[in-house]
Amino acid sequence: MRRIVITDTNLGDGSHERAELGDGYDVTLAGVLTEDEVIAAAQDAEGLLVQWAPMTERVFAALPGLRAVVRYGIGLDNIDLDAAARHDVAVSNVDDYCIDEVADHAAASIYAHSRRLTAAARRVAEAGWGTSGIAAPLPPAQDPVGIAGFGRIGRAVAARVSALGFPVHVWDPFATDVPASVTRHETLAGLAAAVHHLTLHMPSTAETAGAVDAGVLAALGEGGHLVNTARGALVDEEALLAALDAGTLGFASLDVLTSEPPAGVAAQVAAHPRVLVNPHIAYLSTESLPQLRIRAAVKLAALLEDAAR
Ligand SMILES: NC(=O)c1ccc[n+]([C@@H]2O[C@H](COP(=O)([O-])OP(=O)(O)OC[C@H]3O[C@@H](n4cnc5c(N)ncnc54)[C@H](O)[C@@H]3O)[C@@H](O)[C@H]2O)c1
Ligand SMILES: O=C(O)[C@H](O)COP(=O)(O)O
C-alpha cells in the first residue's frame, strides 16, 4: 500500500482523491501548512498532494522516502524545483484546469472597468445619484488590452476580449505562433505604453518578480488599468501604491497580492479606493475544483508508477 499525504486541506476532504486512487493507496488528509508540520505529517509518505505548503530544501531533505509531489494548481512557486531534483523527487502541477475560469475572471475585470462599474457604484454609494467623477467609457475598439504572458490563460483572455471588440497587444519573450491579429511588443514597458488595460499571465519566478515596476506603471499611465490574476509577486506593490496615491495609475483589479491574506503594503493596496480586490478566486468554479483534485491524484499516481520502474 502506497502512503500519500494531502498537506493543505483547503480544497476538500480527500474523497475525490481516494476515489481516483483506489485501494492500493493509503491517503491521509493532514491539514498542515508549515515546514515542520509537513515534515511531521509526511514521514513514510511516497507521494504528496500540496496546495500552498512550502516544499523547501529542508522539507525534501527530511523526507527521504518521498518520490513524487503534485501541486493542486498551476503555479509551482511554493515548490523548490532545484531541491526536488537534488533529492530525486518528481514534481508536477495541474496545468490544464481553470484556464477558462481565470480567463473569464480577467476578461470580466477588463469589461467591468471599461464600463466603469466599480467607479460608478462607488460614486452612488459615496456621493449619491449622479455622474460627475465618472470618466466616460471608451468604446472597446478604442480601449486596447495588453496581455503579459501569452500562454494558456493569456491566449484564452485574448480570445474573449477580442470577441468583445478590444484590440489585443501581447508581450511574451518565449511565445511562438503569436497570431497576426495581435500586436506584439518587445518589452513589458512597451506593452504598457500601448494599452489601457494590462493583464498579467506569466509565472512567478525569479525573473518575473517585481516585473510590473514604477516604470511599467508610469507607462500604463493615469488612465491605465492593471489586472492581476497571476501572482502578487509580479507587481512591485510599493510602486503600485505610490502610483495609485499619486493618480498616475487609474485603477487596479487584483485577485492576488504579495501577502494573502493582505498584510503590510498589500493591505494598503487592497484597501485603496481605486482597487477592486478579490480573495484569490479566479480559479474557482463548480467544475474546476473537482477537476483539480481528480487530475492531481491521477498525475501523482502516474509519477509514482514511473518512480517504481
Ligand atoms: N488566480 C488564480 O486563481 C490562478 C489560477 C491559475 C493560474 N494562475 C497563475 O496564472 C499563471 C499563468 O498560467 P498559465 O496556465 O497561462 O501558464 P502558462 O505556462 O500556460 O503560460 C505562461 C506564459 O508566461 C510566459 N513566460 C514565462 N516566463 C516568462 C518571463 N520571464 N517573462 C514573460 N513571460 C514569461 C510563457 O512563455 C508562457 O507563455 C500561472 O503561473 C499561475 O501562477 C492563477
Ligand atoms: O489554490 C489556488 O489558489 C488555485 O489552485 C490557484 O492556484 P494556481 O494559481 O497555482 O493554479
TrEMBL record:
Residues 109-282 form the D-isomer specific 2-hydroxyacid dehydrogenase NAD-binding domain. Keywords: Oxidoreductase. It holds the Pfam family 2-Hacid_dh_C. It comes from Nocardioides simplex. It is an enzyme of class 1 (oxidoreductase). Its EC number is 1.1.1.95. This is D-3-phosphoglycerate dehydrogenase. PANTHER family: 2-HYDROXYACID DEHYDROGENASE-RELATED (PTHR10996), GLYOXYLATE_HYDROXYPYRUVATE REDUCTASE B (PTHR10996:SF283). One of its GO terms (cellular component) is cytosol. InterPro entries: D-isomer_2-hydroxyacid_DH (IPR050223), D-isomer_DH_NAD-bd (IPR006140), NAD(P)-bd_dom_sf (IPR036291). The keyword Translocase does not apply. GO terms for molecular function: glyoxylate reductase (NADPH) activity; hydroxypyruvate reductase [NAD(P)H] activity; NAD binding; phosphoglycerate dehydrogenase activity.
